[in-house]
TrEMBL record:
Biological source species: Georhizobium profundi
Domain of life according to the entry: Bacteria
Entry protein name: Thiol:disulfide interchange protein DsbD N-terminal domain-containing protein
InterPro entries per the UniProt record, alphabetical: DsbDN
Limits of the Thiol:disulfide interchange protein DsbD N-terminal domain: 62-164
Signal peptide start-end: 1-37
Amino acid sequence: MTQNAADTQKTGPHALFGCGLAAFALVAALAHGPAFAASSDWVEHEGGRLRIVTSTPDADGVVRGMLDIELMPGWKTYWSDPGDSGLPPQMNISGSTNLSAVELLFPAPERVDDGYAVWAGYTSSVRLPFRLHQGTTDDTANLAADILIGVCKSVCIPVDAQLDVALSQDASPIEIALVDEAFSSLPGDQTSEMRIDAVALEPGDPNRLLVDVHLPSAEAAAAAELFIATPPGWRLGTPRKMATQGQTSRFAVKVKRQPIGDGADAAPLTFVLKTHTHSIQQVLHAE
């Protein structure tokens, strides 16, 4: 399949992101200097506020933390792969000292239909866990994080914030508990009762994926939602439930865009399967 020349034209509040951030007034907020604790200062914006909270590094120099996004009522923000519309959260730590390799993680999202587009995100405050690596645990480590997120109400705006933390070897019990709680919100691993059973291209249609899932009960299968995050250059449609039989459901997913020369079976796809009470995450290739 060849790559689409362009995405479908976007309208509504999300169109702001598609037109390029430089064409609009960027909501920029700077925290003034590092906070000498395991958390940054709060940075406020039109739709709420955000900060970073970190824990102490472990014996291998791995530092766990979270991006704490508080949203005012009615405001929303985006998942790592929102779909056709939206700005996924980004965290750049290139200005940091003695820190590297940030990995930003995401709780299971919600399916949001705002009347203009259907996308994956969060309709209330959310904490995004992250991991990074401290090069030498005996030396000072300063986290300088450039954060870019999108928030929406009647319109969508980008929020650009500089959050600074001088990492401490003595994070408070409250900070450690907050970080632990954020990590506990992440999807779990597959189980024998809740899993992705198969991912395959539909026979005769290289632009359509079929995903079979297994749930703990028929009720869970009927209520299950599926979200998929793709590598750069890929774009998938919203997974649509085709059928449910007992504890299994089948979803169909349209492949809207992919890099030239790649087949859908070449890309590692991150699947998040969600019920009312549980979520799991698996990385799989189409067969």
